C-alpha cells in the first residue's frame, strides 16, 4: 500500500532509494517517483508504472544528491498518472512522500486554495505538502512546520519530508501507517519496511504512532505524540539482504510455495518439549489469559481470514471452545456485542492491515480484555497492540498472493487451539496426535509439491476459461475459498467457492460443460456427502476436477479428472490440500501471462481502509 523510502547521507542516496523502491514494489506499483534537494531546487522524477520505468528514466537523465525521498504508489485518491505520482512538491520548496489516507483533505484543500495554492494532482497527499509549506512561511523552521501540520491531519499517514529550506534535514513521521528508520554510520534512512534498507543497514528503529523523527547525518531526534523527545531502541534485523531475492525461481510466488516445508519447520521449531507444546509458547502471561477466556473471536482480512475460517472449525471441534470469525472491515463498523472473556485473535501476515488493526481497537472499545496476534512481522503494529503474539516465522513473503504465510498461519493457529484446548476439552491423546501430524507436515507438503507437473498440465485447461467454481466441505470449504481467491487474484479468472452442500441452492444453475468445478476431497467423514454433491455436478455435464486423498475410491466417470494427494490425516489435511491449489493458480497465471507477483490493482500490504 505505497512504499516510502528516504535517506540523508554524505554519499549519493539516489541508487539506495531506487533499490529500496524495488524492494518495496510489492506494496504498490502504479507509479514511482523520487525527489532530491539540489541547492535551491527540488529535483523530481516520476513515472507511471513500475520502478523499472523510473530506473530507465534515471539512466537516461541521472540525478544525484545526499538528501532524498522516493515512493512507489498504490492509487487511492486519483488514478495512476504522473501528476498523481509522489513525491508531491509545493512551490519548489517542500517535497513529501505519503502512505495512508488524509481524510480531511477536502477541507484543507479549500483553505489552501484560498491561500493561493495551486493543485496539480487529485491526491489527498498534496494538501500535506502545501500545508507544510504554508506553515514553513510562518514558523521559519521545517521541523516546527511539520509539527504544526500533523496536528491538522486526520486519517493515517507515514510521511517522508524534505525541503530546500533545510538541506541537512530529513523528517519522517507516522500515525497508523508503518515507518522504520535505518541507522547507518553517519547516515540515516527511512522506509515503510525493513526489507527496503537491508542492503545498507541491519539496524532499525521502529517509530511509534504519533512519532516525528528529525534526521541529520550525525543526529537523530524523535518526538513522541505529545512532543517530548524520546529514545526508541535500535533493533538488529536477522534478515540478510538476499532474504528478499527470487533465487533461481521465475517468480517470488513459486519460490514461496516451495519454501513451505521449511517455513513450517521453522514455525514449529523450539516450541515443543518432548512432543508437547511448551506451556509458555505464547509468552509468560499467556496462561493467565488462556485460563480466563470463555470464547474466541477471530478477526482478519483476505487470505488471513481464510486461515481463521479453518481455525474456527478447529477451535470448536478439537477444543470445544465457542469461536466466531468475521472479516475485520465488517466487524469494525458493526457495533458488535462481545461476550465477556472473549479472546480476540487477529491474523495478519504484515501486521499492518488497517482494517485488522481497527477491528482490534474496536474490540477493545467493546470491552475485550484479551488479544493475541498471529503474525509474520514481530515489530508490526498488530503485535505491539496485542497482549500476546505468536509469530508465523514464514520469512519475508513478497508475492502479493499469499502462500507460505497462509500455511504457517494455519500451523500457528493449531498451536493456539492446542494451548487453549488444554484448558477446555482437548484430550491428551488428541493433542499428541495433532502434534505428531504437525511434525509430519513438511514431508507431506514435499509430497504435495511433487504434483507440480500434473497440476501444470491441468492448468492448460483453464487458460481460456472465464469462470471456475470451487467446492469443499468442513475445514476444506475455506481451503476451496482460498483456492478460488488465489486463482482470481493472479489469473483474473472469476472464481467462487461454495460449501458443496449449498450447490443445489443456486450455483448448480451455472453448471455446464464449460464450467470447471474444482473439488477438494479429503478422506474424512464428509466424503460420502461430498461425493453426492459431485454427482450433482456430473449429472449436469459439469467438468469436475477433484483433488482427492489417495484413499478415496474414484469413480471411472470420464468427465472427472483426479489429482491424488498422498494419505494425510484429517487434523492437518487442509494445510496439505492448499498446496496443489496454490500451484494451480500459479500455473494458470503463468499461462495467461499475467503479472504473477504483482497482479493488477492489488497490493500486498493494505495499510489504508
Ligand atoms: C492483501 C493481500 C492479501 C492478504 C490481505 C491481508 O489483500 O494481497 O494477500 O491476505 O491483504 O493481509 P495481512 O497482511 O493482514 O495478512
UniProtKB/TrEMBL annotation:
Keyword Cytoplasm on entry: yes
Pfam families reported in the protein's UniProt record: GATase_6, SIS
Cleaved signal peptide residues: none
Gene Ontology terms: biological process: amino sugar biosynthetic process; carbohydrate metabolic process; fructose 6-phosphate metabolic process; protein N-linked glycosylation; UDP-N-acetylglucosamine metabolic process
Spans traversing the lipid bilayer: none
GO cellular component, one term: cytosol
EC number: 2.6.1.16
Reactions it catalyzes: D-fructose 6-phosphate + L-glutamine = D-glucosamine 6-phosphate + L-glutamate
GO molecular function, one term: carbohydrate derivative binding
Domain Glutamine amidotransferase type-2: 2-218
Main location group: cytoplasm
Keyword list, A-Z: Aminotransferase, Cytoplasm, Glutamine amidotransferase, Repeat, Transferase
Domain (SIS) ranges: 286-426, 458-599
EC category name: transferase
Active site positions: 2, 604
Subcellular location per the Swiss-Prot or TrEMBL entry: Cytoplasm
Assembly behavior: Homodimer.
Protein purpose: Catalyzes the first step in hexosamine metabolism, converting fructose-6P into glucosamine-6P using glutamine as a nitrogen source.
Protein name stated in the entry: Glutamine--fructose-6-phosphate aminotransferase [isomerizing]
Source species: Methylomicrobium album BG8
Gene this protein is translated from: glmS
